[in-house]
Design brief:
270 residues; Serine Threonine Protein Phosphatase 5, Tetratricopeptide repeat; 3 domains; 15 helices; 78% helix
């Protein structure tokens, strides 16, 4: 399937997923009237423009309506549809202009990844990097896919390339995960530290840091980091389980069992 075919599918999917037809909505196929001032009339105006595939006019109507009614959920919904349609049009234009460009390959990779077609996504990310070796989004995307399938040496090299271009949370966290898998907990902890500095609200990074510290024998520090992780993400069963291991290592069997029970409960509730 060509890049244009894939991107055209985005446009079609957006239309099918979000737009009611004029007939189904009971809207007569009449010229839209811009004088409507109530929300229902403004929604109707936007829908008519969308039905006619007049995306630019729909965007102007939606943004004008949102300025008057900034908290209306129907208008916010239709503004989302309109901006999605605009984005799909621009992606399709990109594919026509530069079908073998790095950005088009990156976009195809992201689509395949969203469909769980990870092998195809890896090929497209590799094609993007062949066209533009310093495309950081492709480096991070390919590294993540390799990390997921536990090809950690390959992923580590890509993360390091990305980090040399521009420090990011994704690269620091990915390096922490890969180095932990490779049993280099000292270096893993260093990268998890960078990750939590770059995004203090990322529970997964706090959990990774706490796990590395526990494995290094720094149990008290590890418990503090894992406690931060479960405070940020109470439903993260892996963090509760690792907190149980940390309490067990610290000689606190009561808290250890509480954490183990919580982890098991969360797994069973999935």
């Amino acid at each position: 399937m060509s890049a244009i075919d894939i991107l055209r599918r985005v446009c079609v999917t957006a239309a099918i997923a979000g737009l009611m037809t004029i007939e189904a909505a009971g809207v007569a196929a009449q010229p839209p009237k811009a004088e409507s001032t109530d929300v229902a009339g403004e929604v109707r105006l936007i829908r008519v423009y969308l039905e006619r595939n007049e995306i630019d006019a729909a965007y102007r109507a939606a943004t004008a309506a949102i300025r008057k009614h900034p908290a209306d959920t129907n208008l916010l919904y239709y503004l989302g549809l309109v901006t999605r349609g605009l984005a799909a049009q621009e992606f399709e234009r990109l594919a026509r202009i530069a079908p073998d460009s790095a950005r088009v390959h990156q976009l195809q990779a992201e689509m395949f990844d969203a469909q769980d077609r990870r092998a195809d996504a890896e090929k497209e990310y590799a094609a993007a990097l062949a066209a533009k070796p310093d495309l950081i989004e492709a480096l991070l995307g390919l590294a993540k896919l390799q990390r997921i399938r536990l090809a950690c040496e390959e992923a580590r090299a890509l993360y390091e390339r990305a980090e040399a271009l521009r420090p990011t949370f994704d690269a620091a966290y990915g390096l922490g995960v890969c180095l932990g898998y490779l049993q280099n907990d000292q270096l893993a902890a260093k990268h998890f530290e960078q990750a939590v500095q770059r995004n203090p609200s990322a529970a997964v990074a706090w959990a990774g840091l706490g796990t590395s510290l526990v494995k290094l024998g720094r149990t008290v520090d590890g418990i503090a980091k894992l406690t931060r992780a479960v405070a940020l993400a109470p439903d993260m069963d892996e963090a509760h389980y690792m907190l149980g291991m940390a309490y067990q290592a610290s000689g606190d069997p009561v808290r250890a069992q509480e954490s183990f029970r919580k982890a098991e409960q969360l797994r069973n509730d999935r």
